[in-house]
Design brief:
about 280 residues; mainly alpha; Catalytic domain of cyclic nucleotide phosphodiesterase 4b2b; 11 helices
């Protein structure tokens, strides 16, 4: 299932998301999905007047598209399971915008010439929420809608206190948790996840250099190899409990068929962890 859509091609991801959107909401206008993706491409490809193209090598546009596709599939799975309460079209649309904007905080302004956007790792969630607010306000989106998108984006923070996010309603919370679920699974299930771990380490290292002592205290890895060794535990002790407990087990809606079918995302992550363990075993002591 995961290889059916080439997330290196924005149009391929857009077409799949649009198909899901129209299946869930037959009376909706496909043009909304096209517009949302055009806005995201505007930022990540450097065509926005205020921002350069993304130069963070791990948190690139494909990373966003992987999460976007996973989110659409998860919400579609929940819809097909006829789970109550039913998700509204507006909530889906806000969630789509939120995940497309959730890593715009890695983008550098036009006059920013120092390093790459990876230096904003510690602050990227707050920056992303700010980018979304500024842009969507100019496009005429309402205060409550923008607040929902900002709240959903905040769910993706690594150490965020979910109870402190001022959700306006339960539906908004649900989509925020689904978004964060998709952000984690979309990247960890990628076919090149293991190969890109050194790239992710490089982003963390740049952020630590940029932030100085404050970031160094929070930076958990001493080398690429150390990051590789810690990743299986990161999956088992952080990601899985977060998916099941903090985010309410929404990842189970990725099972096909629901509720007892296989979850292709979990299977791919487990495959990646197995590959990683093989690499770790071959590392020198």
């Amino acid at each position: 299932m995961l290889d059916e859509v080439n997330t290196r091609l924005p149009i391929a991801t857009e077409e799949c998301v649009a198909s899901i959107y129209l299946d869930m909401f037959p009376d909706s206008d496909r043009a909304f999905v096209r517009q949302a993706f055009e806005w995201a491409e505007l930022f990540f490809t450097g065509r926005h007047t205020d921002y350069q193209a993304v130069d963070a090598r791990y948190h690139d546009f494909e990373h966003t598209l992987q999460g976007t596709l996973c989110l659409a599939r998860l919400l579609h799975g929940r819809h097909q399971a006829q789970t109550l309460p039913r998700l509204s079209q507006k909530a889906f649309e806000l969630g789509l915008l939120a995940i497309l904007f959730h890593d715009t905080g890695y983008l550098k302004k036009r006059d920013d010439t120092e390093g790459s956007g990876a230096k904003y790792t510690r602050t990227h969630v707050m920056r992303s929420a700010g980018v979304a607010k500024e842009f969507l306000s100019a496009k005429g989106w309402g205060a409550a809608e923008i607040a929902a998108i900002r709240n959903m984006i905040q769910c993706t923070g690594v150490n965020v206190d979910l109870q402190a996010i001022p959700f306006q309603n339960d539906e908004e919370r649900l989509v925020g948790y689904a978004l964060s679920t998709a952000d984690l699974l979309g990247q960890m299930a990628a076919t090149d996840y293991v190969e890109k771990l050194p790239v992710l380490y490089g982003e963390f290292a740049e952020a630590a250099r940029f932030d100085g002592a404050k970031a160094l205290r929070a930076f958990p890895y001493t080398s690429e190899e150390d990051m590789m060794r810690q990743t299986p535990a990161f999956w088992e002790r952080y990601v899985l409990p977060k998916l099941e407990q903090d985010f309410g087990g929404l990842h189970h809606f990725l099972r096909k068929p629901y509720p007892d079918g296989p979850n292709a995302y979990l299977e791919r992550v487990q495959h990646n962890i197995a590959r990683l363990l093989e690499k770790i075993a071959a590392l020198p002591e």
